[in-house]
User: Which sequence fits this backbone?
């Protein structure tokens, strides 16, 4: 069974996985927030505090990223459908 550590950011979502380095965050029209993946450089599981720091180190459009909580099924469906192929590549 594969497990994934998911790091979520409010404006920019950081999900552990891999995407092209030049890929821009993807906006969900459901709330206007942007989501992105952040590669776990060391591989494996990271701690919540490490995920929080990684999210806060991101910026997009002059705004800092921060850890988020998926608050409803529609948001969860968006994140899952948008980034599932990237999780499979990790």
Assistant:
């Amino acid at each position: 069974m594969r497990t994934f550590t998911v790091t979520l950011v409010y404006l920019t979502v950081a999900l552990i996985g891999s995407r092209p380095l030049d890929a821009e965050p993807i906006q969900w029209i459901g709330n206007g927030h942007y989501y992105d993946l952040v590669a776990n450089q060391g591989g494996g599981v990271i701690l919540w505090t490490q995920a929080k720091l990684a999210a806060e180190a991101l910026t997009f459009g002059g705004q800092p990223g921060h850890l988020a909580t998926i608050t409803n099924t529609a948001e969860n469906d968006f994140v899952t459908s948008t980034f599932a192929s990237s999780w499979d590549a990790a």
